[in-house]
Amino acid sequence: MPVLVQGRPAADDHPHPTPEAVRGTPHRITVIGEDVLHRRLRPVTGFGDPDLARLVDDMFATLHVAEGAGLAANQIGVDLQLFVWDMTDEWGVRHVGHIANPVLDEVPAASRTLLEEPEGCLSVPGPYVPLARPDHAVVRGVDIAGEPLVIEGRGYFARCLQHETDHLHGRLYVDRLAARERKAAVREMGALRDRVLARRAAREAARGRGTDTPAGGAG
Q: Would you please indicate which residues are annotated as catalytic (active-site) residues?
């Protein structure tokens, strides 16, 4: 399987889970309604700080246990513009990385294609709802050492980059839905949440016993 780490080709046998996920400690994932999910986050400034590297490790560990594609810092309660990803796109390419202080390039309406696909969120556990997003995204930011970073995605990975950047502005995917669809998604979450959280807890327990399995493709 081709692998891109920080947007650059890596060895096809890049470990799964990632070394960061193995080093890190899983955290509780915040849920819709918690304040940190609904406001713009602070820019990252402490580049090269061991605490920042530890945060990235913990985010990867949390992402792996939750079987997600991407995770923003506020999803573990941290007020910083930072997100991580580990997911495989429609073409079988695995994307792994992190970015701080990302800015999405504007895609001119005349040159973009909107794809309506089911979208979910680890902070809205359970439901997946069709949502239209551009099929191409470019984010510009820096890594945790402060080095410039440009990440480009298409299809599912483009959706992931847009979804996670939204988080850093205090926006969940359900905020992009019509009011009726949003209420239906929240109701569905109420029905599915306990089952989803129990699965996460089981995976975290398995990790502690050294019997963890690779993450699935949840959004």
A: 164
